[in-house]
Design goal:
Largest sheet: 7 strands, mixed
Radius of gyration: 23 Å
Distance between the termini: 55 Å
């Protein structure tokens, strides 16, 4: 009997060593917490990490958004920690890093992240960094894109009135966008061709979350395909919507999904000259869930496309559900 237990113990140790090599255990966390100040003082910020020998973890962060506290600022990046769990030191690469100061609590949106677990280092490439205030219901309007389909080659001016702040635009937004648009959707801006106008912003949306859809992660793709078609997106637009959002949503056990056109359009007014015959704006707000919830189905209105049309889609990840 003792021999069996001894063999079982050996197997457990081997399994832990195989599958737990990239995790920080409780004792390691305690040690990392205790020597955090020393590590911050001695870390080589310029040569923070060799990504070839680090674990890529970008896809495992879900929303790819974190709240961090800035510790030290450099040209093009800053070092930070999580305020409530200062175990890892984060290097956040961001071209406007000098806009922040040590002690600032910031909300970081990022694309890629890499981790070295043994000495508690994570490096990420930020797409936006803003001062975080948990008292405000501030959401990121992520990747709204505007398609323009005139019936003939047309010079079009597009502008936005945002109740908030633009954080990213492409092409560069300068009091608006002046483009030449073609019936197939091509846009020419200052000699360059674009498939759409891209922007992101922070705004204090007041979403109505009383009705929505609780959808299993595995069922998210067919659900979105059906709803996007109903709301007026064509196959190409729906595919680009799915390319951006589906990888973040289908890995969740469940998603609470709503469409917030009314609140979205009131916080982000769109002005287009000459005015289109048809404007369709689709904005999804969703929240990942661990367990399903009872939800009263949201009533959606079908959209019909006609004539010279302007089509837009975007979304945000919610921090709370009803």
């Amino acid at each position: 009997m003792k021999k069996r237990f001894w063999c079982l113990g050996i197997c457990v140790v081997l399994l832990l060593s195989l599958f737990g090599c990239n995790k920080v255990n409780t004792s390691d966390q305690g040690l990392l917490w205790q020597d955090l100040e020393e590590r911050l003082q001695t870390v080589d910020a310029e040569n923070f990490m060799d990504r070839d020998h680090a674990k890529f973890i970008g896809a495992k962060f879900g929303s790819r958004k974190m709240e961090l506290e800035v510790q030290a600022v450099y040209d093009g990046f800053f070092l930070a920690i999580e305020p409530d769990s200062p175990v890892y030191i984060y290097k956040v690469n961001y071209e406007c890093a000098n806009d922040f100061r040590a002690g600032d609590e910031v909300s970081v949106r990022y694309e890629d992240a890499y981790r070295v677990a043994r000495d508690g280092r994570i490096e990420m490439d930020a797409t936006s960094v803003t001062i975080y205030n948990e008292e405000d219901d501030v959401f990121i309007a992520e990747k709204p894109v505007i398609y323009l389909y005139p019936e003939k080659e047309t010079d079009i001016f597009v502008s936005l009135k945002i109740k908030g702040e633009l954080t990213v635009t492409d092409p560069l937004y300068q009091e608006g966008w002046q483009v030449t648009a073609y019936p197939d959707g091509r846009l020419i801006h200052q000699g360059r061709e674009y498939p759409y106008l891209f922007w992101e912003a922070e705004s204090e949306f007041d979403f109505d979350l009383s009705r929505g859809f609780c959808v299993a992660g595995a069922d998210t793709e067919p659900f979105l395909k059906e709803k996007l078609r109903y709301l007026g997106l064509n196959e190409k637009e729906s595919a680009e919507f799915m390319e951006y959002w589906l990888p973040r949503m289908e890995q969740n056990p469940y998603n609470y999904i709503t469409f917030q056109q009314e609140e979205y359009t009131s916080c982000a007014e769109l002005e287009i000259t000459p005015a289109p015959d048809c404007v369709i704006r689709v904005f999804m707000a969703y929240r990942p869930l661990e367990e399903p919830i009872q939800a009263e189905a949201q009533e959606l209105k079908p959209a019909q496309r006609f004539g010279y049309s302007a089509i837009e889609w975007g979304g945000t990840e919610l921090s709370q559900v009803p």
